[in-house]
Amino acid sequence: MTINQYAIVNLSKGSVNIREIPANVIRSYLGGRGTNVYHLNKLLRKNVDPLSPENVLIFGAGLLTGYLIPNASRFNVTAKSPESGFLGDTNCGGYFGPEMRYAGFDQIIIIGKARKPSYIFLQDGSIEIRNASDYWGLDTYNVQIELRKDLGDVQAAVTGEAGEKLVRFANIRNGVKNAGGRGGLGAVMGSKNLKALVAYGTQGLDVAHPEQLLEVTKRANEYVLNSKVISVMGKLGSPYLYDVSNALGAIRTKNSQLNAWSDSLNAEHFEEYVEKMVSCASCVVHCRHRNTMDGEGPEYTTIGLLGANVGISDPKQVIELNNLCNRLGLDTASAGGILAWVFELYEKGIVDKAKFKEEKLEFENFELIKSLLEKTARREGLGDILAESSQAVKHFGPKSADYLIAVKNLPQSDPHDVRYIKAFALGIATASRGADHLRSRPTLEIFLRLPQEVKESIYGAGISPDPTSYEGKENTVFWSDNMYAVIDAVGICKFICHGFNSPHLIGYEHVKDFLDTAVGLKFDIQELKEVGQRIIDTERILNLRFGLTRADDSLPKRYFDDPAPLKTAEGHHVDRKQFQIMLDRYYTLRGWNEDGMVSEERVNELEAIE
Amino acid sequence: MKYIFVYPERCTGCRLCSLACSLTKFGECNPRKAAISVVRDEFERFEFPVVCFQCQEAPCVTACPQNAIKKDEGTVSRDDDRCIGCRLCAVVCPFSAITTFGKELIHCDLCGGDPQCVKYCSTKAIEYTDETQEAMQRRKEQLARVLITEK
């Protein structure tokens, strides 16, 4: 069977050390997000500066990535985040994850800092650190195009100009559209003088039971493709979510001063710019729009953050901003969050306008937004401050923090205003990497007509059917958080994950069959659920080491204090007291104490895994 | 006759077809070790499944110095005992549809009349269809685009 190898690449010393991932670590954490956080916890014992050579940057493919398994394409990148100062962990699709496995590696751990611009080349079991001077300064498209000219049919995870300039929300990219978007891990690459991780592999992945895997995957594909939401996703992509949330009054608009925006950004208005729907490796959904403007996308997140949140209503302009961010290597979510924040600070006079006399800062100004994105990626003028993301509070003064839509210093990625649906509020408050929807989004709460017995069969009894109620919502977050951690660890896309977009789709039962037939690992459902909890607890232990306290499991001030002004959500806000009681119940489910600490016994148990 | 037809405009690039092929033929998952390959480049903006099209006048048959490749009942097949592994068939193929991989020369044999790859395509970008049925279906789709205006 295929050996699960990882390598430690020390860029300061120029050394490479290849090892096997112990079987017990795979059983305990699977791969991808799981084994990444396992190794980060082992290697990062101090609270280091995220942009220093001491930070540890880990690329890890899911345990099922690269197999004949639907949507098993994904890898995670993990480090201490320069944007939040807490856990940085980001999940990415495309074709790089499978390629690093075909090149012979499940995981690459990068430490130190190269003296000169460098890239790491993985090729059929070998690893070389090479000179990247010719690629430094190129945007994320051109660096990949040039690497292919020089090295052939390779896949690369790269950073753009923003990463080189240490922008705190610079991302890591593969292909035209796939992003390891969150937490600024592109800047960690930049801080290590690392332009790209490149892979070329001809080594197949051995399969434990080939005939059974062929059968299991055929049935899983049919099951996924019969789902209504998947056919919508294949036609419209994630933008279909905009309409749903906007009707509810849950689209973050102008830094959440408003909670609904123009119908002109509904999915159908993006269709005229779609040339073809394309896929990541092994994907049966094909949610990616190849747009007619020399890019791919936008996703729902970008429509919200670089549309409604900055006051843009023309789909064409959203696509242009999307494509621009992708080339520069900027996270569109943080970009839209930070711009909207600064526009409101300026509008309200919270920042000293005289400071920016050459700038005119306002919502709805497409040319201004475009130029600020370019300046941010290059750290020019005001862009040098915007590039600091939430840490720009230092420049704008303590009062500015009241207007920042972020949790754990990470600007919220989900365009969803959480004042109405309380499970969403708890989800972004407790997600291990900060205000983020991909860790625990209990999307089913939006589907108001979903029968109560369906919800209870998934999340357990005692959940209020009312989305505005706090009752039992800790269960939906707990369940989702664990499930999504497992799906990340095996490398399957969340779009076909049980509970993320549908009450059906790929859950523990399927994962169990995939692991058995592809890798030959037998798990029962309870063991898989425990893997999810183990990943979340290990992430928590790391965050506590980075200084996290209960006060960080909170929400932007506005969600507590300003009732939503529009539509169904009108008048709704999150009650501070009720929120704290719900958080208590969530901690209890996790087995954490009232301060959100992991017990010493649990810490010792997890530390002992090797 | 039934053949594999490919429709690049429907291909999303996912390579499940290649993985199904390599798993069926070799018991492993390796998109580079398969009789069907998805040629794709997201920067050049195309995806195209490449597989043996079972040419009427197949250059691989003509070029083989060992007479190892034959056409039987419309399907190209290779006699492994005669094959010396010179890779000339792969070079002369106008679609580069024959995969060379180590000691393997991988040539689609339609899985003996039950091709696995088509079963894993989620968009029907590859189909195993009778040629006359396919022709009529294709005509209907083309004419629908020409004749039916927006409702």
Q: What series of H and E elements makes up the topology of chain B?
A: EHEEEHEEHEEEH
Alpha-beta classification of chain B: alpha+beta
CATH third-level topology of the largest domain in chain A: Aldehyde Ferredoxin Oxidoreductase,  A, domain 1
What's the number of structural domains of chain B? 1
Overall 3D geometry of chain B? globular
Our estimate of the beta-strand percent of chain B is: 15-25%
By CATH reckoning, the class of chain B would read Alpha Beta
CATH architecture of chain B: 2-Layer Sandwich
Helical content of chain B, roughly?
Answer: 25-40%
Largest sheet of chain A: 6 strands, mixed
- Low-confidence parts of chain B lasting 5 or more residues at pLDDT below 50? none
Name of the CATH superfamily of the largest domain in chain A: Aldehyde ferredoxin oxidoreductase, N-terminal domain
Q: Say what the CATH topology of chain B is.
A: Alpha-Beta Plaits
Strand content of chain A: 5-15%
Keywords:
heterodimer; A: 610 residues; alpha+beta; Aldehyde Ferredoxin Oxidoreductase,  A, domain 1; Aldehyde Ferredoxin Oxidoreductase Protein, subunit A, domain 2; Aldehyde Ferredoxin Oxidoreductase Protein, subunit A, domain 3; 3 domains; six-stranded mixed sheet; four-stranded mixed sheet; 39% helix; B: alpha+beta; Alpha-Beta Plaits; two-stranded antiparallel sheet; 9 strands; 24% strand
Q: Describe it for me?
A:
With 610 residues, chain A is α+β, with helices and mostly antiparallel strands. Chain A folds into three domains: 5-200, Aldehyde Ferredoxin Oxidoreductase,  A, domain 1, CATH 3.60.9.10; 230-407, Orthogonal Bundle (Aldehyde Ferredoxin Oxidoreductase Protein, subunit A, domain 2); 414-607, Aldehyde Ferredoxin Oxidoreductase Protein, subunit A, domain 3. A six-stranded mixed sheet of chain A has the order 2-1-6-3-4-5, sandwiched between helices. In chain A, strands 8-7-12-9 form a four-stranded mixed sheet. A three-stranded antiparallel sheet of chain A has the order 14-15-16. In chain A, a hairpin with a 6-residue loop joins strand 4 (75-80) and strand 5 (87-92). Chain A is globular, with a radius of gyration of 22 Å. Chain B has four helices and nine strands. In chain B, the strands form four sheets. In chain B, strands 1-9 form a two-stranded antiparallel sheet. Chain B has a single domain, classed as Alpha-Beta Plaits (2-Layer Sandwich). Chain B has helices spanning 16-26, 59-63, 88-92, 131-147; strands at residues 2-6, 28-29, 37-41, 46-50, 69-72, 75-78, 99-101, 104-106, 126-130. Chain B has 151 residues and is of the alpha+beta class. The A-B interface holds A 66-68, 70, 98, 102, 141, 144-145, 175-177, 202-207, 210, 213-214, 217-218, 221, 225, 275-286, 290, 296, 518 and B 9, 12-16, 19-20, 22-24, 26-33, 42-43, 45, 47, 101, 116, 119-120, 122-123. Strand 13 of chain A pairs antiparallel with strand 2 (28-29) of chain B, so a sheet runs across the interface.
